[in-house]
Amino acid sequence: MIKETARGMAVNLLTRVEVEGAYANLLLQKNISRLTDSRDRQFVTLLVNGVLKHRLTLDYALRKHLSKPMSSLPHEVRAILRIGAFQILYVDKVPPAAAINESVELAKNYPKFPGLVNVVLRKVMEKGWDIPWPDLKREPARYLSVRYSHPEWLILRWLKRWGAQETEALCKVNNEPAQTWIRTNTLKISREALKERLISEGISVELGLLVPESLKIQDFGALEQLASFQEGLFTVQDESSQLVAHVVDPKPGQSVLDTCSAPGGKSTHLAQLMQNKGEIQAFDIHNHKLELIGQLATKLGITIIQPQFGDARDLPGIRLESQDRVLVDVPCSGLGVLRRRADLRWQKEEQGLLELPSLQFAILERAASCVKDGGTLVYSTCTIEPEENFELVKKFRIAHPEFEPVNLVEDLPFKLEEKRDIQQAYKGMLQLMPHRHGTDGFFLAKFRRTNPQE
Ligand SMILES: C[S@@+](CC[C@H](N)C(=O)[O-])C[C@H]1O[C@@H](n2cnc3c(N)ncnc32)[C@H](O)[C@@H]1O
After folding, report:
1. Which of 94, 162, 248, 376 has the most crowded Cβ, counting Cβ within 10 A?
2. CA-proximal residue: ligand 1, atom 2 (nearest)
């Protein structure tokens, strides 16, 4: 095994991802603390996530300079080449010559390969992006797939729906580094006071524009080590996810049902908005994840959440028409968060996508049955696929005329700018897109149960 410098650890982890099919984020979490310098920890994370995200493009560029197939090389040598090429092509702060020298050093663990690594990476440096690409006009899917490192089946879906320009814009944004957002725990501190506190802890902070609790942070080491984090003054949550609880709009004292709730990001936000008064039944089908809800609630000083083990298609123990507010944050394809989850794009298959809507619909229908007369139902996903979003909502509306859409224009904590967003919001729906809104891809729909006889 290669020595554990930052680059050495990145090679070892990427090899394990490839050979064992291990999850990169879990491997990073487990191993990274062995590096004592926080800059090394950040660098390993950058290399591992960067190589996973850009793997298709990196392999395409490397293959142009290799005389043998990548598959004939040992896994570790492939990882060394990818890490080298990633630094040369994507990381401005590493001089290309340093990237090559460090890669050759790593390759010395594999006696036949330092020469090959040196020659190939020198060519990557010389040629840069100036290599023959597939033709955008003739082979748009292939071009976008290798140029932006996305699976071709996914590009084909998007091209059919949005055309080349919009698909390219989306792919570009998916490859940008994800920003870190946190949510102020307003039960303990105001956003302004938290901002000051974080600045005093050496962190760069910017106020978010979409919701009143969000802050964008930069230049932090390990968040868990900050006193403000340990005191439960905030939790990490993307800004678009923070919108959901505001759209649910629960009031103190109400009964709230969160059908798919682990690890508790939205349940705890709902509790904040309820001033920790009332009752939240938080279901999830994975028992081990329910513990996370309890841990997060305790840390944030929240006592009104009752984690419940159960399938949201059944919701055992929840009476019909008993809840003031119901949130249905369904399991989904996650294709709105490709920027944030480096290897997610390679874990998905089209067949899996096609199977999701029937599960989502079954959950939504059972959840809807729990909404009181006059109560509201919010459906949310972190995807941009219409089958899981608009089309599913349309089917629900046809099957359930007892639910009317709730106009979101007034309900959102920020002002919509684009006409098409406003039109959708009037019909109770909002689709955020990474390339148009700068957020994760996120979908929301809100309905109210009405009594048709009245
Ligand atoms: C999008 S995540 C929920 C995130 C959560 N609302 C939050 O904000 O932290 C979807 C959750 O649904 C759960 N899940 C999947 N199938 C389910 C089912 N049939 N019934 C209940 N929960 C389910 C998963 O375990 C996962 O935790």
Report:
1. 248
2. 331
